[in-house]
């Protein structure tokens, strides 16, 4: 393939993670250093920034300040939840994107996000191809949900998992401080896939985890749940439960809908907004036991707690951005960077980087294998721990100032042609 | 004063903190090494462990394992919320305590807790004195609430403050990720004193904190609050609010009582159990704006997040336990170890250790000075930041195993005479 000279755009989409900026920084830094890439533009708020001609010139940022992106949570360029229509239905957005690409001579498009973002990449790539505009499109994955197909795991997952496991170990000790009865229900993110909630099993592996873990991969039965909690509570006077926000009964009804009138708020992609499950289940258990019952929602702390990020996750995220640029310049397009796991001769985890076809990745959700759940579907097996533990290794090398995080401040100089 | 030979008891009381075990370890280690102290007993679940003759022999623990107490959150010996009656009303408990002290030849009693625990110390000390039993009593402070009188600050506060400031900086970034309207209400612990909530101002000092901070030191007016949020939201499309669980109106009514039927659950000392304020205020703001509004309760994570503890807090806590033993052996009694701040010739913070009379400390609550609030009572001045910032310095030296905390496992061998 021939060298393609031109500008690049990097955009970020979907919910925040602790390391999505590490990926973007890997992409931006590598692109700034590549002689075939004539300019590096950041799209403000993802694809909306392209549509609105709201681009910033990453070359105008101070390199030392830019480097702080690697340890800054959330999306430094801003994010969106904007879903492109099928071009066959309405190609207005695509025409506009092409117009902007031509205006800035954009020949490389990097999009940093989850399944929906990979779908966006795929659609743009197809449209450009059909319209004879040469532009290489690369997806850079991120999602705390860990549900992208193909890749062994997703950037962002491990840092969230580490925060969840660490917090659960701390909650375990807190919940045992009095010799009085105590039941704790911890609600963890995860709509359809239980990877985040499952990470509570890492705390169990250290002897300080929840007694029960419920993921949306399995149907949740309220009577069985209550009986289990009562049994554990009767034995030890304590019970800690980790539940995924997306747990549902055999009819597919969310447990969070049992008690609350679900507000029917939907995000931009039509997913229901869940929440309040912990307090609902805490209420149920209060009426069923004499224990003090506490519901805890880890809330958005689990996705933005960069101070507890996995350095392995940070480095892999950085590399995924870097490799996206390198492979695009080499001539590849329409791919997502992904991870393939291997083990060296000493049994140590090794992360290998591979490219996956966007069509394979887009809009498919990867769930926890059924055999990684215990028989009663309220806990994980050793296989899950073997899978997740290598991913959370290493403490963040985050820069601190006065012992508080020193997060990036971008100048955000508007791009000009 | 003459050397007093005998055993010692250390007990822990009240709610968990990240560093109460650092204090206890400072006490236990120093006592184990002191030739005048013939045995070191840990009271299981505080004063209840004394009443129940449920003591463990700290000398039987492996020293290397015991050292992990320094970085383990919550009370490793177990805690209680047991309030001793006045001896003049009912001296049953005191007689029993004296009986146990005599049984084990206890001549030193160290009690690690907040205001209520200092009150317990004070009462026991008086009873022993009146009954001619020589026993030196020392209070070792702890409380994330930072509300003990006399001392400049309290062990446990700084670590909670650091976690709160760090989490708020992360929430700040998360809340700005979309270009759509977003209001976030973060509920922070603190019944009568706003020290914990005020620590959100440390995030403001780093340019990534809440727009509004409400503490229980000032009356909260709902109309003013709504108007302020609307004004900030209209300007920037975002607003982050930090509220103390104990905020109340001019009539003293808790704001958390406005919406909820308060469960009237009381803890052992007759304090009302608060909670649910964030979601109540989020609900109010939802009806008043077109923003997406999120309520976040930091919940018990703020008191047990040892992974984000201040090493300054850990060392000061350790020292307070150590000094309690040293001063008791020297002949002092009926005191609490406290901190007095000074600054060295370079303007660096220095912590000095002093002893305070228990009668001064017990049952008094120290609040934030009125002049440390801004004029509109919805923020803190630079004076607060100057006060708090030195306390949160230094990253925890916590031992990790597989990049997760390695918390202490005590053998808890029952004490025998």
Q: Strand-and-helix sequence of chain A, N→C?
A: EHEHEHHEHEHEHHEHEHHEHHEEHHEE
Strand content of chain A: 15-25%
**Spatial extent as radius of gyration of chain A:** 22 Å
What is the percent of helical residues of chain A?
A: 25-40%
> Mean pLDDT of chain A, rounded to whole units?
94
Biggest sheet of chain A, in brief? 7 strands, mixed
Oligomer: homodimer
Largest interface: A-B, 58 and 58 residues
Strands of the widest sheet of chain A, in order across it, are 3-2-1-4-5-10-11
Structure description:
The structure is a homodimer of 417-residue chains. Chain A has 417 residues and is an alpha/beta fold. In chain A, 35% of the residues lie in helices and 18% in strands. Chain A has a seven-stranded mixed sheet with strand order 3-2-1-4-5-10-11, sandwiched between helices. In chain A, strands 7-8-6-9 form a four-stranded parallel sheet, sandwiched between helices. In chain A, helix 5 links the parallel strand 4 (106-113) and strand 5. In chain A, helix 1 packs parallel to helix 13 (311-330). The two termini of chain A are 27 Å apart. The model of chain A is unreliable at 261-275 (pLDDT under 50). Chains A and B meet through helix 6, strand 9, helix 12, strand 12 and strand 13 of A and helix 6, strand 9, helix 12, strand 12 and strand 13 of B.
């Amino acid at each position: 393939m021939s060298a393609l000279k031109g500008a690049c755009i990097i955009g970020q989409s979907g919910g925040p993670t602790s390391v999505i900026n590490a990926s973007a920084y890997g992409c931006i830094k590598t692109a700034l250093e590549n002689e075939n890439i004539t300019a590096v533009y950041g799209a403000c708020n993802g694809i909306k920034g392209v549509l609105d001609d709201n681009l910033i010139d990453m070359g105008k940022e101070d390199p030392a300040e830019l480097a702080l992106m690697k340890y800054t949570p959330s999306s430094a360029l801003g994010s969106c939840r904007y879903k492109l229509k099928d071009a066959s239905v309405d190609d207005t957005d695509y025409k506009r994107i092409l117009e902007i690409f031509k205006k800035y001579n954009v020949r490389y498009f990097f999009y940093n996000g989850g399944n929906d973002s990979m779908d966006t990449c795929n659609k743009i790539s197809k449209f450009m191809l059909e319209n004879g505009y040469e532009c290489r499109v690369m997806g850079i994955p991120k999602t705390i949900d860990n549900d992208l197909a193909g890749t062994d795991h997703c950037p962002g997952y491990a840092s969230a998992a580490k925060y969840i496991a660490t917090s659960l170990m701390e909650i375990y000790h807190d919940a045992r401080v009095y010799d009085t009865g105590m039941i704790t229900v911890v609600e963890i993110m995860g709509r359809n896939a239980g990877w985040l909630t499952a990470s509570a099993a890492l705390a169990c592996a250290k002897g300080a985890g929840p007694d029960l873990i419920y993921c949306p991969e399995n149907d949740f039965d309220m009577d069985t749940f209550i009986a289990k909690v009562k049994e554990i509570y009767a034995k030890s006077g304590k019970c800690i439960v980790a539940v995924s926000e997306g747990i549902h009964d055999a009819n597919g009804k969310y447990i969070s809908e049992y008690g609350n009138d679900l507000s029917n708020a939907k995000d931009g992609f039509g997913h229901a907004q869940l929440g309040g499950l912990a307090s609902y289940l805490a209420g149920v258990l209060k009426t069923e036991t004499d224990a003090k019952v506490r519901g805890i929602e880890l809330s958005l702390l689990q996705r933005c707690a960069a101070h507890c990020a996995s350095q392995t996750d940070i480095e892999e995220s950085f590399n995924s951005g870097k490799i996206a640029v390198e492979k695009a310049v080499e001539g590849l397009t329409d791919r997502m960077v992904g991870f393939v796991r291997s083990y060296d001769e000493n049994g140590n985890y090794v992360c290998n980087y591979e490219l996956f076809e966007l069509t394979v990745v887009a809009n498919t959700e990867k769930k926890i294998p059924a055999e990684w759940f215990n028989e009663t579907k309220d806990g994980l097996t050793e296989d899950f721990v073997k899978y997740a533990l290598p991913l959370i290794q290493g403490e963040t090398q985050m820069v601190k100032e006065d012992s508080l995080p020193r997060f990036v401040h971008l100048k955000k100089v508007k791009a000009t042609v």
